[in-house]
Amino acid sequence: MIKDITIGQYFPGNSVLHRMDPRVKILLTGVFIVMLFAAKGIEGLAVGILFTVTAFLFSKIPLKMMGKSLKPIIPIVIFTAVLNLFFIRTGKVLWEWKIIKLTQEGIDTSLFMVIRIICLICGSSLLTYTTSPIDLTDAIERLMSPLKKIKVPVHELAMMMTIALRFIPTLIEETDKIMSAQKARGADMETGSLMQKAKAMIPILIPLFVASFRHAEELALAMECRCYHGGEGRTRMKQLKMSILDLWGSLFCGVFLAGVIVIDRVLG
Amino acid sequence: MAVIKTEDLTYVYGDGTPFRKVAVDHVNLEIEKGDFAGIIGHTGSGKSTLIQHFNGLLRPTSGSVYIDGERLWDNKARLRPIRFKVGLVFQYPEYQLFEETVYKDIAFGPKNMGLDEDEIDRRIKETAKLVGLSDSVMQKSPFELSGGQKRRVAIAGVMAMEPEVLILDEPASGLDPKGREQILGMIKEYHKAKGNTVLLVSHSMEDIARNVSKILVMNDSKLFCYDETAKVFHRSAELEKMGLAVPQVTRVFDRLKAMGFDMGEDVYTVKFGSGLLLDRLGKKGAK
Asked: If you ran DSSP here, which 8-state letter would residue A254 be given?
């Protein structure tokens, strides 16, 4: 069961989206969000939907994976829909019962909101589906590098993120092993009251804690042996490079953003 | 009656994903009560997966495991008692220590069994003596001990449950020769004292040859054979083909035989081999 936890949600592949520069992808995700919020009417939103669908098709991610990323936000979607449905009281009344009033405008707005949220999640999860966590931290480091001027430890933050990502699978494996070992000694983690269950975690948490310190110490030593001294003057094995693909991607995104704004003005 | 019996035991990792791997493939075997058996096989041959089925930590993908004639996984509530019956010591068991004192850590297993205080105390003292932990060590924190001592504490933690079957996964790995000798010696001692079934997973043919009476060989997820030590080492050519070496001394005597000095077969401990050599030299009158 513990093995089912996926780290990030990277889905390996070689699509156009996979090959784009992660920095550009992060920036374009920002543009995409602006695009969705720039849309005021259903027509503008339609352009946004079209963009999401096209990007999705380009990414070659299976539809099932998309469904998976939508699952956790279902409560938010329902909440938004209900809120808009019953609290917008203007417009043509369709149905009324005591204080509950359903209006045309309410239905329109709640549909609009729901579609917008779904697009938002689908579109932005494409970023994490097509970019490995390591690439992502790399790109964040590069994008934030101007902040070094105001003494933000950008490299250190990125290194911390990379190390954390690197050790999640290791610690999961370790937890699995410790759990098996304690179960072999008769530890009972499934039955009992909440308090008993919490107590049953001690034989797992302490060895895990000790293990993390051990890993940290070993890693620090290994880094020091390789003369690691922070980000100053450090070069990379994998250089981030922009290609013609990124230009096309940006153009594509820009055209759609313009499309949303224009269509909203003309039809709105 | 066999204490451990498997029928077409199969285990598949990551079924239905691209990472699917058959780790144990239709294994049928019977381990008799009181056997002291070694389990060998190259890395990834399915040894560790196999032994985790014997105490119900892993659920077979298909096939079944019987402990004392009782089929595992028919009743999940019975798994815990089974784990007290079949004690499993994992590789690098010192990483599972967690209590404040060595005494308390060894007590963890027996306490889970629901034994009374006196019985727990008796068992701890007995195992501590067996594995060579002094009284002053018992009140120390397990985290202050040396690697070899930690290993002993962890093994004692399982031994104190007095399981009918004791399974140890590479109990001597990562220790120096003296430490190896001590750990293996105390396992042998335990077997002798209790007469319980002991299964020893190891990479070292020397360790296996010196201690066990039967050997189980795993190869490519399949059971290659389970037989008496002499008979298994007899098939040295086959073993070497699957990347397992017979003990060095057996190889020496194989070569001697090929060179025309036949001194009998089944030489797999240095002690026995050197005795044979001395005999022969004595007879011929070594100059």
From this structure: H
